[in-house]
Amino acid sequence: MDSRFDYRQATEIAAVFRSHGVRYLFIGKSGAIILGYPDTTQDADIFVEKTTENCQALVAALAKLGFPLTPEHRAEIERGKDFVQLRYGPFDLDLVFAPDGIETFAEAEQRAILVEGIPVCHIDDIIRSKEAAGRVKDRESLPRLKAFRQWWMERRGVK
Questions:
Q1: Is 92 helix (H, G, I), strand (E, B) or coil?
Q2: Which of 51, 56, 91, 154 has its CA 20 to 30 A from that of 21?
Q3: Considering the entire predicted model, what is its pTM?
């Protein structure tokens, strides 16, 4: 099995999350890839709205996707732990309830881009989050992400 994130996984996640009413946005490199960023990543990064109802819907959606949630992971998701990594399902998934550099889900959702029915954080939010996280791998990818942002904005007719 290829462990890299791909567009097929994004459409599968989107369909199942939509059917369960999960409010979420793709973020991180997986979000940038959906926007057209020419790179690969090993996992899908999902920014999830942190409400009781949404977290419960997320647990049901993850089960539908084939994630055998442990009681510990289920509890972490239901309480909206800031960051939950799932590494034992059909693909690797990072659930982010409080991404660095983004104040609220509602604000990010207002700026979000819909790509063929898939909600994605705006490229500015993806970059802001990577800048705020400050990890070495994020700092190394920022120049390429910023160059992509310029190309992406020009393509959309925004200066």
A1: strand
A2: 91
A3: 0.94
Q: Note the Cα 4 to chain centre separation in Å.
A: 14
Which pLDDT tens digit goes with each residue over 145-158?
A: 999 999 999 998 87
Please report, in angstroms and rounded to a whole number, the separation of the first and last CA atoms in the chain.
41
Average pLDDT over residues 59-74: 96
Is the distance from CB of 144 to CB of 33 less than 8 angstroms?
A: no
The rounded Cα 48 to chain-centroid distance in angstroms is: 8
Tell me how far apart the alpha carbons of residues 153 and 106 are, in angstroms, rounded to a whole number.
22
Domain ranges within the chain, ordered by starting residue: 7-154
Q: Which CATH number fits domain 7-154: 1.10.630.10, 3.30.460.40, 2.170.270.10, 3.90.1010.10?
A: 3.30.460.40
User: How far, in whole angstroms, is CA 54 from its chain's centroid?
Assistant: 15
pLDDT (0 to 100) of residue 3? 63
Residue burial 100-111, b: 16+ Cβ < 10 Å; e: rest? bebeebeebbee
* DSSP per residue, 119-134: EE--HHHHHHHHHHH-
pLDDT value, residue 1: 43
